[in-house]
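Render this sequence as a predicted structure.
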Amino acid sequence: MKISRVTVDATQMNGVPCVRGLRIPVATIVEMVAQGMSDTEILTAYPDLELWDIREALSPSLHLNKLIQL
């Protein structure tokens, strides 16, 4: 899977991975899902997000890539 919706910019949010430069950290989306929020609830809380943003934030390849960098 190609990671295209998650961006990392050292000048934005201290380089924290965010969704499409929107200043919505990937970790926030992961936490919302972990708390049991549905896609609809997340999209309501963050209207600028799209369903595919959530899918990519939860992508195993994204998190595996982060582990490899450690």
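Summary. The longest helix spans residues 60-69. The mean pLDDT is 87.
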